[in-house]
User: Fold this.
Amino acid sequence: MWGLMSDDLKNICVYCGSSAGTEPAFLQQADALGRLLAEKQIGLVYGGAQIGLMGAIADAALAAGGKVTGVMPEFLVRKEVAHQGLTELTVVDSMHERKMAMAELADAFIAMPGGLGTFEELFEVLTWAQLGLHSKPCGLLNVSGYFNDLVRFLDHAVEQGFVSRENRSILHVEANPATLLVRFENHQPPQSDSWPVRDRG
Ligand code: AMP
Assistant:
């Protein structure tokens, strides 16, 4: 199977916190990833908010001349404070429509530090990949070790027989945005139907 060539990475969807978190590194890396995407002429697709890490990554990409598409359901437009300076803001009817639209617009997915919304979005695209519904690269930007316990838990789930090694390998984990993009450029989707073994022996 061919790797995903860099030309194929036209838009990347980033999931991240509607809060900024406590470590200055979270905002710094949101800024770094936003700038990097703009420099590489990769469009940013995200949830459309101007708050927290979401706002920071959008601001950074826009300031560096990048293209930013926000996708937000109507009921969140006020609550999450929609970003007013985006290249495009798509307003949809529901959270389900939002996640579907973001997934369709993107050629790859990155989760940065965030909360429950970020976890849900990441695990949804991972399970869609597990089912073969897409073969787009998925990555975790593990800023300041924020996701260390999650990564350990995923490895535990493999050891305990609930996640196959192939499906675990869908998720690329890196601390540095540029390194993560290189992993994406060399991405090889799992070749086999790799549902976990179900025998009880
Ligand atoms: P959080 O990581 O909780 O700060 O949320 C990050 C983004 O995820 C925000 O845009 C939230 O609106 C969104 N979000 C929150 N809950 C959900 C959910 N159940 N499904 C999908 N997205 C969500």
Residues 17-19, 47, 49, 76, 80, 95, 99, 114-118, 120-121 surround adenosine monophosphate (CB under 6 Å). The domain at 8-185 is CATH 3.40.50.450 (Rossmann fold).
